[in-house]
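Q: Could you fold this chain for me?
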Amino acid sequence: MEPDLALVLGLVIAAFSVPSILSALADSRAPRASALTVLIGGGLILYALQQNPNGYTMQGIPDVFVRVFARFLP
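A: Sure. Below is the predicted structure, expressed as structure tokens.
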């Protein structure tokens, strides 16, 4: 898997898990599934950071999203 794709997937998965965590906490439930998705997203982000020799900057993340989406959209 390419590091850019792993970074984008990790960020999207981690972002989608935040509402699930808040919902579980509001209902006084344990956020088990949410914790698993945070771990998966974090693992993908760490993989991307380790595989990219140049690293990522906060200013470069939108460019990574555009490159990944441009590659997969017709």
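A (continued): The chain has a mean pLDDT of 93.
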